[in-house]
Design goal:
Structural class of chain B: mainly alpha
Radius of gyration of chain A: 24 Å
Oligomer: heterodimer
Number of helices of chain A: 3
Structural class of chain A: alpha+beta
Number of helices of chain B: 6
Largest interface: A-B, 49 and 55 residues
């Protein structure tokens, strides 16, 4: 009886492992991968209204609640005054929040480096569900004109690139993700590749020769080369550190993104069409 | 597993997915966040043994993979192994009927599952899975699991309630499993 049960358990394990490996293999192939992406997008469309609702509730109300919670221990005879005070404070906090939000949106309206490129304003509604990927979710998708490959910027510079989009949401791969690779130049010269360094919230530059003069604080921006996936001149970050190898053949350059990727709320998606 | 068990499992997995995407993803410490889906797989093994732990892990993994832009099936593979392993752990756990022990084992299993996920991800060719990010993820998942293990275990016991008695796995109150 126990032996039968163990055999059954092992058989189940083997079958499920094989099923998982089959799904993994199918995901690497074109047609099956498209079908999986369709299902993923449909699920995102179902979940996004809930996600959007909770995000909207948590962002402004969380601060207001934490501010008003301190008034809970006031004396009973001041109850009415306290309620009025609470309501006034609530309104003030809401107004201040709305004003700050409006300021942040307006600051996106005059980005010099996106001149001439049509943009779609969007809001970040969620972070990556995986602990091993740096992405954010936007509240707009294909129905808003957002599609895969489009660059995403905030007021300070490049945030990332749209990697997938359902009709109502889009997923943006942040520039610091280890799979992100961006053709860049330093101070407008040279051609390098900026690769995400993961959770260090930084990027490292490839192809920098030891003889190249790179200085801390220099601006790193997109070069527009490498197939033109990104327009030229979008600020990406500033050089944080420069270290020449002991042989003097290569230089390790670390770049800090200009955008605080942990606190990005409003972005603009560039309707940039890759040449060709 | 009966139809009722499957329906309950689907409900718990869907609720877990919404909780993860809407709330837990926003609670980031050191760039990582708690993971309730991995806990569902671990708790399934703890609540119902290796076989149904693996099945529940597979279902939870496929669901989790729907909202992650990593290879589809990676979570499913990890959670199958995790659910099965936790089920085996439960069978060999001293004081396994003590809820505190089960919850602690679930939290430890979730931490181990996170490392397994990173290793399997690296084996599939995904860069940046191993390193400091793994440590941060393990810390956050474990802390989250300490808080969430007990309610998730309760949910998974509800999912599988009924099937244990029918399969003769239930131990009468005051009786012995040996």
């Amino acid at each position: 009886m126990a032996a039968n049960r163990r055999t059954s358990q092992r058989l189940t394990l083997v079958m499920l492992v094989l099923a998982s490996l089959t799904v993994l293999t199918l995901d690497y192939h074109g047609e099956a991968s498209h079908a999986i992406n369709h299902v993923r997008n449909a699920v995102r469309d179902v979940i996004s209204p809930i996600q959007r609702g909770i995000a909207a509730a948590l962002h402004p109300v969380g601060d207001v609640f934490s501010g008003t919670i301190h008034y809970g221990s006031l004396e009973t005879q001041n109850q009415q005054l306290r309620e009025e005070l609470g309501q006034i404070r609530l309104k003030l906090a809401a107004d201040a929040y709305a004003s700050a939000q409006a300021g942040r949106v307006l600051s996106l309206a005059h980005l010099p480096y996106v001149a001439g490129i049509p943009v779609i304003a969007s809001e970040v509604i969620g972070n990556s569900t995986s602990n091993f990927q740096s992405t954010v979710e936007l509240d707009g998708g294909t129905s808003s004109g957002i599609g895969p490959g489009m660059p995403v910027v905030a007021n300070a510079g490049l945030v990332g690139t749209v990697v997938s989009a359902s009709s109502s949401t889009a997923t943006v791969l942040l520039v610091t993700d280890p799979t992100s690779s961006i053709p860049v130049s330093i101070g407008g010269t040279g051609l390098y590749r900026a690769v995400g360094a993961g959770w260090e919230r930084a990027l490292t530059l490839d192809f920098v020769a030891g003889s190249t003069a790179v200085h801390r604080g220099e601006l790193v921006s997109t070069s527009g080369l490498g197939g033109g996936a990104l327009p030229a001149g979008i600020p990406l970050g500033v050089v944080r550190s420069v270290r020449v190898s002991s042989e003097g053949l290569s230089t390790a350059v670390t770049v800090t993104p200009l955008v605080n990727l942990d606190d990005v709320q409003f972005v603009e998606v560039l309707e940039w069409l890759e040449p060709g | 597993m009966t139809g009722v068990n499957w329906a309950r499992l689907a409900l718990v997995v869907a609720a877990g997915l919404i909780l993860q995407v809407s709330v837990l993803d926003q609670i980031t410490v050191l760039g990582a966040h708690p993971d309730v889906m991995i806990l569902v797989a671990a708790a399934a093994g703890m609540a119902a043994g290796p076989q149904r732990g693996a099945i529940a892990g597979f279902v939870a993994g496929l669901a989790a993979d729907l909202v992650i832009n990593l290879p589809y099936g990676l979570s499913a593979l990890t959670f199958v192994l995790l659910g099965f392993g936790t089920g085996l752990l439960r069978a060999n756990l001293a004081a396994r009927e003590v809820e505190m022990t089960q919850a602690a084992a679930c939290a430890a299993a979730a931490a181990a599952g996170t490392i397994l996920y990173a290793v399997l991800g690296a084996l599939t060719g995904r860069s940046g899975m191993l390193g400091l990010v793994t440590i941060y993820a393990v810390v956050d998942v474990t802390l989250g699991a300490v808080v969430l293990a007990w309610p998730v275990l309760a949910c998974l016991r509800w999912v599988f309630s009924g099937s244990r008695a029918r399969l003769g796995l239930a131990v009468p109150r005051g009786g012995s499993a040996v």
